[in-house]
Design a protein that fits this description.
The chain is mainly α and 129 residues long. The chain has a domain of 55 residues. The longest helix is centred in the middle third of the chain and has 21 residues. The radius of gyration is 27 Å and the shape is elongated.
Length: 129
């Protein structure tokens, strides 16, 4: 009985105690900070989506890389997947290089909707006449 009474008193004390002095509640994140982060593309949903797409495309590269499933997920044309399927992903070499680029590159945007078979190669700038 005494322990229950003591526990009840401690709980009441814990819920009613406050810091003394002037107290002003401040939000953890200011709205201007949130707006600036959203303007820069740092929304939490976008970050989670970027990491999810990296994990999904990497998983597809491991499991179905020789057939180009990761390239279809990233939005390439079916022509590239056919070339991957006929050559079994460049005998596995293209799929391994793609996996390395998917795992270790900072930005996946150059690989999205990329219709080149060698997705990591850069386009050559046209030479002026």
């Amino acid at each position: 009985m005494r322990s229950a009474l003591l526990l009840m008193m401690l709980l009441q004390l814990a819920t009613t105690s406050r810091a003394s002095g002037p107290f002003q509640e401040r939000p953890i994140l200011d709205q201007t900070v949130l707006d600036s982060l959203l303007a820069e593309g740092w929304a939490l949903d976008t970050l989670a989506h970027r990491e999810n797409s990296r994990l999904i495309s990497s998983g597809l590269a491991v499991l179905l890389g020789p057939f180009g499933a990761h390239r279809l997920y990233l939005g390439t044309t079916p022509k590239v997947a056919i070339i991957y399927g006929v050559t079994f992903g460049g005998f596995g070499i293209l799929a391994l290089i793609d996996l390395g680029h998917l795992l270790f590159s900072n930005d996946l945007e150059p690989y999205r909707n990329n219709d080149r078979v060698f997705m990591w190669s850069r386009r050559k700038e046209p030479t002026p006449p």
